[in-house]
Amino acid sequence: MTSIDASQVASRATEIRQRINAAGGKDVKLIAVTKTFDVGAMVAAFDAGCDGVGENYAQELIAKSSELPIAKRLPVHFIGRLQSNKIKLMAELVDVWQSVDRVELINEIAKRCVKPGAGDRPQIMLQVNATDEPDKGGCKPHEVSDLVETANAKGLEVLGLMTVGPTSNEAQSTQRSFRLVRKLVDDLGLKQCSMGMTGDLEIAIAEGSTMIRVGSALFGPRR
User: Fold this and answer.
1) 6-218 in CATH: which number?
2) Comparing C-alpha atoms, which of 196, 173, 223 is closest to residue 19?
3) I need a surface site. Which of 14, 39, 58, 155 has the fewest CB within 10 A?
């Protein structure tokens, strides 16, 4: 795994916050994408005042969580392609499941994470494929409403929706896909809209993102 310089992360986090504020998103949450970096990235994200960390791989998350001091723990968002057989391994480690896109995953999270009598419901976000790219994860926009209903019925809390911009990075296509997802959030009365990464966070914030996911701009290139 790639290690990082904590002082650089703090400086870069300040720069990203400045970009967020300049784009009009002073209340937008910053999720630090720590995949492929060692546990020091999680600690650095905490010290830099990030709002959460984003992980993509089950085994990597499990390994790093065992090394992470409790006092330095941020909420963990799982943002990678989610396999149902990995959910039980991460049930105690993930705070927000951001990449839920089908009923099978809803059922498994409910099975592994809903605790009878607990006051808090497991938190999820539904990933939407707003670009219609076949290689991207996410449900189709017209499937979102039914998935929200299913998740609520299973005892999960749907915080909002998540999406990834188009692979082309073309500004108009990015704007169009983000606008579609924000409209779905509003139409369904949801609160959170996770969209925007290092290269397109300004467009995402302009279109109503409440949460951006940033990795390379914080930690440098992955190797």
Assistant:
1) 3.20.20.10
2) 196
3) 14
Tell me the residue type at 189. Answer: G
The phi and psi torsions of 194 (rounded to 5 degrees) equal -95, 100
Residues 38, 184: Cα–Cα separation, whole Å: 36
CA distances for 99 relative to 6, 9, 41, 60, angstroms: 28, 26, 22, 17
Biggest CA pair distance of the chain = 48
Q: Which of 118-122, 180-184, 208-212 is least confident?
A: 118-122
**62-95 pLDDT tens trace:** 999 999 999 999 999 999 999 999 999 999 999 9
Q: What is the DSSP letter of 125?
A: E
Bridge partners, residue 170, by sequence: none
Two tokens at 193?
A: 């809209």
